[in-house]
From TrEMBL:
Family: Belongs to the class-I pyridoxal-phosphate-dependent aminotransferase family.
SUPFAM superfamilies in alphabetical order: PLP-dependent transferases
Record's keyword terms, sorted: Aminotransferase, Pyridoxal phosphate, Transferase
GO molecular function list: transaminase activity
EC assignment: 2.6.1.-
This protein's name: Aminotransferase
Pfam family of the protein (one): Aminotran_1_2
Upper taxonomic lineage: Bacteria, Bacillati, Actinomycetota, Actinomycetes, Kitasatosporales
Cofactor entry: pyridoxal 5'-phosphate
Entries under InterPro entries matching the protein: Aminotransferase_I/II_large, Kynurenine-oxoglutarate_AT, NHTrfase_class1_PyrdxlP-BS, PyrdxlP-dep_Trfase, PyrdxlP-dep_Trfase_major, PyrdxlP-dep_Trfase_small
Residue ranges of every copy of the Aminotransferase class I/classII large domain listed in the record: 45-375
Organism: Streptomyces durbertensis
Amino acid sequence: MSTSITTEPDSQVVGIYQRMTALAAEHSAVNLSQGIPEPVYDAEWRAALAAEVCLAHFQYTPSAGTPGLRESVASLYTDGLPAPVITSGCTESLAAVLLGLADEGCDTVLWLEPFYSYYPGLARLAGMDTRSVPIDLTGTAPRLDMDRLAEELAPLGRRGVLLLNSPHNPTGLVLRRHEWAAVCELVDLHGFHLVIDDVYRDFRYDGPAAPYAALMETGRTTVAGGVSKSYAAAGLRLGWLLTPDRLARRAETAHMHLSNCAPDLLQRAAVRLLAEVDSMRLTHTAQSYRRKRDHLLAALTDSGFTASVPDGGHFVMAVPPADRPWGPEPAVDLLRNTGVCALPLDHFFTRPDAPWLRFSFGVSAGQVEEAAQRLRRARTARNA
């Protein structure tokens, strides 16, 4: 039986990122607590913005996005998918589609646990009840219990929403082909709406991309994405939604009430950037992330952590070594004792069964190396 999710005030859930970053700065720690991508495309973004600034206007743009950017985003996906709606970031995409689904009569959203800590707040804004299905973290890599997922979705029927991100934040779970096929069958069988948080789509180290065309054929699937991770522009706040026409109209109305439209200059620059950064460059970037993942995993394991191996995304989840006492805030203890800052995952669980920490390898290779050295030095000092 799944558990209804209760959360602390949203300010505490969101504030943990700012708190850990401030502590990292105060203690000169290597900050692995935030999901900020390495700025590998900053030069390209600056060039694109500079090239477009004299052509851009500074008035309203179409709420659904400029034709140029909508075409560019559509080209990233399988032919035949709905035209995208451009939003102010993937988080707003999720908010808009949940508000649109609530308007259609959906009243419960289900996701995998641990869950991205913003999800409960987004569901609450839409007036939806929330439920979760746990990811199995007992092995060396995260695993999804498809039978359990099916059991939890069956009673929700058409009033239910499955919010699914693959690669998953924070575990790095990537669904396999048979799992995607099972999700498609469940949508057809029970009639719930599937919302895919696709923001880490280009950071898969093992496992396939989502079968977008097959999922869209159900008529009950939405894909939400953005430039934040794949194009290393988390602060640019450009996202998109691909969703059936009836829901697109509702979601666009919600988007109009949230931010109305994205700036013309940013959309123009994004058109240039998406054309310049091709699939080969995205693959090269993902390969560099995989190397950083492996380096960080080795350091955590050598330092006595119990780590879960992610198949995608930017994060490693790990439990601190049990050979030393930890206070009520293991992440703060770790920061002060090693100079490495991780994110505590209390807000990603209903009731965490262990003091899980999330370490980002989205930082530079040099920062990963420095963090690895600090973790190993601290382990050596404890054993001396």
